[in-house]
Amino acid sequence: MDKQRDFVLRTIEERGVKFIRLWFTDVVGTLKSVAIAPAEVEGAFAEGLGFDGSAIEGLTRTFESDLLAHPDPTTFQILPWRGDVDPTARMFCDITTPDGLPAVADPRNVLKRTLAKAADRGFTFYTHPEIEFYLLKSSKYGENGPEPVDSAGYFDNVPGGTAHDFRRRSVRMLEDLGISVEFSHHEAGPGQNEIDLRYADALTTADNVMTFRTVIKEVAIEQGVYATFMPKPFSDKPGSGMHTHMSLFEGDANAFYEAGAQYQLSKTGRHFIAGLLRHAPEITAVTNQFVNSYKRLWGGGEAPSFVCWGHNNRSALIRVPLYKPNKGQSARVEYRAIDSAANPYLAYSLILAAGLKGIEEGYELPPEAEDNVWGLSDTERRALGYNALPASLDHAVSLMEDSELVAETLGEQVFNYVLRNKREEWAAYRTQVTPYELRTNLEIL
């Protein structure tokens, strides 16, 4: 770590960095930033930077408001969109109390705790997110709702189009930040795009997702458009998910791979999926944390609505993808419920905790879904044992409230804050009189 700190200090001097932004997130997943001068970095490494935690959503209580932000030197990167004018860098921070203990409500610490539990069992957790978002002409909208930048569809090539140039610029900027991109393409909705980040350990991935959102917003501003990670901005178009591929490794060996097993999926992999299936409904208030998230889950457009798994079945909640024969390292599972607006630190903590619970308890994996789950009737789904995910944020919060797994993984303070925050959101939402009600009821009632 000392070598890494020395590298940061030397790079700041050599590159003429003028500002260093210290980044962390609140419990909802909003990025927070404070800029310090180069002369203050060494002190921040040694002692942390003090701030009022009670002013940050869910981070601490008023009577224990003093917190310290400790920059993680391994996350140092120069921000490419700042250019050569006042070069600026960033580092993610770990949050502690004044006596040096990890702040219990720091989302990054929640994930580190869960990863440490996995490490105690010999596992490293790797993730690979496919992040969808919409590009709009503006954040403003009229009677017809938001206006997308194009009318293209899935994998469409639009020479000279806004989205084409946007993706190229974004990918270059992400690569400049040390974030490897695997794919980028136009998605099914008008103005909808997807950029897939390469596999990394879950903590790095979560940091990368937070950086990714910032890059996308910055490039959009630069190009005169607006990017949104809202799960469902259009009622009749697909929502934006963050399908995440994941695997556990034991040293250099993929714990999900077993040669000769069905789909080459090991017992560990099967138990992990079973844990995810059993606990999926109670973690959904975090993986899908907004009222709008449930418009995506229940609004069609290939979003998963029912708790089941399948081999290469895109209608299932959990998919076991095809991969090249004899490529055991690429054995993985894909969780399809999580959306692009989730707090990645908390969401990945709960997904990992659910999978580990399945391994610890030896949960049996139910039969796979071979049919198109969306095409089945409710009676058929009930007969096959495919329970539904929560239908609303209110329903999701009720399930989360009774979950020992979520309470234990998040810790008391984060757990209670998420519950309170989401209850307030639901209460505010349900009092709204919507355009739909006015359109369908006002004249006839």
Task: Give an overview in words.
With 445 residues, the protein is of the alpha+beta class. It has two domains: 101 residues, Glutamine synthetase, N-terminal domain (Ubiquitin-like (UB roll), Roll); 308 residues, Creatine Kinase, Chain A, domain 2, CATH 3.30.590. The chain has 13 helices and 16 strands. Helix 6 packs antiparallel against helix 8 and helix 10 packs antiparallel against helix 12. The protein is globular and about 65 Å long.
Mean of the pLDDT scores? 90
Give the name of the CATH superfamily of the largest domain: Glutamine synthetase/guanido kinase, catalytic domain
CATH class wording of the largest domain = Alpha Beta
Biggest sheet details: 10 strands, mixed
Total count of helical runs of at least 4 residues: 13
- Class from helix and strand fractions: alpha+beta
Please state the overall shape, judged from the principal axes of the Cα atoms: globular
pLDDT below 50 for ≥5 consecutive residues: which ranges? none
What is the CA-atom radius of gyration, in angstroms?
22 Å
Enter the CATH topology name of the largest domain. Creatine Kinase, Chain A, domain 2
Top keywords for this entry?
445 residues; alpha+beta; Ubiquitin-like (UB roll); globular; ATP-binding
Topology:
Blueprint: H1 2-14, E1 19-25, E2 31-36, H2 41-47, E3 49-52, E4 66-71, E5 77-78, E6 88-96, H3 107-120, E7 124-136, H4 162-176, E8 181-186, E9 192-197, E10 200-201, H5 202-222, E11 226-228, E12 242-250, E13 253-254, H6 267-287, H7 293-297, E14 309-311, E15 318-320, E16 333-335, H8 344-361, H9 378-384, H10 393-401, H11 404-410, H12 412-430, H13 435-441
Parallel strand pairs: 1-6, 14-15
Antiparallel strand pairs: 1-2, 3-4, 4-6, 5-6, 7-9, 7-10, 7-11, 7-12, 8-9, 12-13, 12-16, 15-16
Helix pairs in contact: 3-8, 4-5, 6-8, 6-10, 8-11, 10-12, 11-12
